[in-house]
Amino acid sequence: MKHFRQFLLLTLGLIFASAAGFSVWQNTTAQTRPLTYPELNTALNSKLPNSAFKNKTQLINWLITQIWQRKVDKPLTEDREDDLRQAGATDELIETIRRNSPPISKPTATPARTPTSSNNSNAFKNSIGMEFVKIPAGSFTMGSPPGEKDREDNENQHRVTIGRDFYLGKYEVTQAQWKAVMGSNPSIFKGDNLPVENVSWDDAQEFIKKLNAKGEGTYRLPTEAEWEYAARAGTTTAFSFGDSLSSEQANFDGNYPYGTASKGKYLAKTTPVGSYAPNGWGLYDMHGNVWEWCADWYGDYPDGSVADPTGPGSGSNRVNRGGSWRSHGRGLRSAYRYGYVPSDRYYILGFRLVRN
Known about the structure:
By secondary structure, the protein is of the alpha+beta class. The chain is built from 10 helices and 12 strands.
């Protein structure tokens, strides 16, 4: 009877959600309890707009965050997936549920291989203090929809599959980490916990070469697709935080916020890594602080779906992503693309690494 009363309260709460963001859901049951499929279907079928969400995109992004935090109680069977899609679930939402629900049991005569400790870990730190977060394999829509404010012509949407898990730097590479490998500091704004900047793509490659020589693993720059996939963290909005951005959320020129956000501070310098809230996958400063070098040459996107793309075979510029402390809000969008000559050094250019 107790569980029935909880479910009844939950259902009513989802229908009459408050502006605090489905507070009845969060208050009537422990936030650590896995979500159920009736709860997800009730949420997807709720009438929109309401006092909590203007449209289904906002609702789905909120659900994705909840699922990563709380998981789902049962396997995603075909019938359950069909019900969710009929209620309006997107590919990103289905993929998030699949990765946060128990596997479907399959009879087998061979016991599963026990993962090694490195495969079992969701994060690790190397000898110079670089922290990495495990990013799950999956598929997403890269680029921006036609209706996204201030979108560019080079952001055409296409489906991308990231075929394997990878580890991405939790933070941008810091000056202390750069000095530990290179023995010098090229940055304009000095501080051990500030991101290293004024480094070219070529400089980043030299750093990687020396870091790899330590024998602690193989490091590299992320591909452009890996970068956007990680920056979005399962979201489809302009930023991992939604469709608005203020300088309370990221380091950029707060005189030029995005969406409905109010004007804010312009610090005119870098800030220590991790000064702002992380995205849903625990990555910091994916929006703002310094532009981040990617491995790819800058070029046009493919027209169709692709798996593990690495960009054009040649070009003049290398890709930069994320915007910087000097950027306007629109330049920090998850889909926004830019490129510099590989030898360019500038006090807005930095990077983070992937560990294979």
